[in-house]
Each structure stands twice: as C-alpha cells, then as structure tokens.
C-alpha cells in the first residue's frame, strides 16, 4: 500500500531505512521496524506499557484465537488490509492478507508488533489522521478500539469492507459477577457510520476456564480498570480460576451501491 506524507500528503518512497516525499520530508524507520508518522505531540499516546504487557500475556495464551480465526475468514489473501488501532499486532500478524498496514499511537505496542511481524508495515499515527491515500484498502479492521468513521470511509475502496469487532452484552459477565455487587450486561448499541451500510453481523462466543494471573491481565484489558473501586479490584486477587464467557459481535460494513 502507498504511504502518504503526514505533512504534505504526497507519496512517501522508501530508500534504505527512510521514507521520503518529493518535498523532502523524511521519516526514518525505527530500529524495530515501525514508522513514526505522528507529527503532533498529542496527549493521547495510546496504551501504556503496563496495559500492553497485560494484553500480550493474556492474548498469547490463545484465549481469543477463535476470534482471530473468525475475522480471518472474512479476509482474502489478495486483500490490502488496514488494522486501525492494532495495538501490539496480535491479530494483524496472523491475518492472511499479503499487503497489511497496522496503525496505532502506542510506541510500546508498535515496537512489539514490528519486532514480531515483518509481514506488516506498522505506522505510529492517530487513526483519525490515517497516513494513507483515498480508497486504498480492500478491508479495514477495528478491534476493541475507537471508530475513526471519516477516515474509514475515505480509505476504503468502493467495493471494500469495514470489519468492526466489539464485545456483546454478555462478554465477561462472570468476571463482573465475581467482583461487583450489582453486575450489569454491556450496552449493545447499533453502530451507524455515515457513508457505510451494515452488510452482516456475526456473533461468536466461547466460555473458557481462565486461571490466575491471566484473570487480572484480562481485567487490565477492559475499560472497567478505570471505573472499578480499589476494593472491588482486590477481589480479583483471591480468584484462582473462573469460567468466563467471551462474547463478540463482528459487524461487516460496505459502501452503499
Ligand atoms: C483496547 S486496545 C485494542 C488493540 C488491538 N486492536 C487488540 O484488540 O489487541 C485499543 C488500542 O487503540 C489504540 N488507540 C487509542 N486511540 C488511538 C488513536 N487515536 N489513534 C491510534 N491508536 C489509538 C491504543 O493505543 C490501543 O492499542
């Protein structure tokens, strides 16, 4: 896939270990292999090393591999793919597409991703300013991350597909029952994206016995980590193992005919 200069939007060309545009804007590949195209000193620096470590330890145990397989089935080898907010590339690295770009704002995430996966070009950038041309991707994926609506519609080919993965109502319900006095189901809103229509929705789930310390790693990956009291968090430490439901919604969107 062609990469655009974040300053002037012209095409970036690779020479040795640098990407350069015709206006002379130059971006060096990091030693791990990712490309830093983030111009702004934004406050959002993506997930921090502690969050990345917890997610990595949990995911590498394979608990979510059935989700990865389900998404991979929606892809073709010949697809050009953008994984928006790819984190440390757990999913990206195994997707079958030959032409893959992963975008995230977390340096820690992209260091791991680009060290482990030479089949993908990882870009440090906001997903809300994708450094890629219009209509460049057959598939765009967002897994448990903010939806960059305008950029998705801009970068998606006319016959492309946007695949969104999010938790469904019952996702992690047993974990919530174990720590909260009043556990609640997740809200399941319909996602509406201007310029796209939903083609299909797939629900997948699996109940898995999770052991310590992966229960705490899993908790660290969730938004509950910011909203749960210290007292409730403490309860996690006494759980040795727990059957937990992993329930996901996969929405596939396309451009209207
Ligand atoms: C919950 S994680 C999901 C990561 C990955 N998709 C996965 O499921 O393993 C959300 C990711 O979004 C990234 N992120 C959040 N806001 C972002 C933004 N504006 N631009 C790029 N990445 C962003 C974070 O750094 C983090 O890696």
Structure description:
This protein has about 260 residues and is α/β, with parallel strands linked by helices. The chain has one domain: Rossmann fold (3-Layer(aba) Sandwich), CATH 3.40.50. About 20% of the residues lie in helices and about 30% in strands. The chain has 7 helices and 12 strands. The strands form 2 sheets. Strands 5-8-7-6-9-10-12-11 form an 8-stranded mixed sheet, sandwiched between helices. A 4-stranded antiparallel sheet has the order 1-2-3-4, with no helix packed on it. A hairpin with a 6-residue loop joins strand 1 and strand 2. Helix 1 packs across helix 6. The longest helix is centred in the N-terminal third of the chain and has 11 residues. It is globular. The mean pLDDT is about 95. The protein binds S-adenosylmethionine (SAM). The site of S-adenosylmethionine has 19 residues, from loops.
């Amino acid at each position: 896939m062609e990469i655009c200069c974040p300053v002037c939007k012209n095409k970036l060309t690779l020479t040795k270990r640098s990407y350069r545009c015709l206006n002379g804007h130059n971006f060096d590949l990091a030693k791990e292999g990712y490309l830093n195209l983030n111009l702004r000193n934004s406050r959002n620096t993506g997930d921090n090393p502690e969050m990345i470590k917890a997610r990595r330890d949990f995911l590498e145990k394979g608990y979510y591999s059935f989700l990865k397989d389900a998404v991979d089935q929606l892809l073709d080898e010949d697809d050009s793919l953008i994984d928006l907010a790819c984190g440390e590339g757990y999913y990206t690295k195994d997707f079958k597409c030959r032409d893959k770009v992963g975008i995230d704002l977390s340096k820690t995430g992209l260091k791991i991703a680009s060290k482990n996966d030479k089949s993908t070009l990882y870009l440090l950038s906001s997903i809300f300013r994708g450094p890629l041309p219009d209509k460049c991707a057959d598939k765009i994926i967002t897994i448990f991350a903010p939806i960059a609506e305008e950029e998705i519609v801009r970068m998606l080919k006319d016959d492309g597909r946007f695949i969104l993965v999010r938790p469904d109502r019952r996702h992690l319900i047993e974990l919530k029952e174990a720590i909260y006095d009043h556990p609640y189901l997740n809200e399941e809103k319909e996602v509406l994206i201007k310029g796209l229509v939903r083609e299909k929705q797939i629900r997948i789930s699996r109940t898995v016995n999770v052991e310590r310390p992966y229960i705490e790693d899993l908790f660290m990956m969730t938004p509950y980590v910011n909203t749960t009291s210290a007292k409730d968090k403490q309860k996690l430490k006494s759980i040795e193992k727990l059957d937990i439901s992993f329930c996901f919604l996969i929405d596939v969107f396309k451009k209207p005919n």
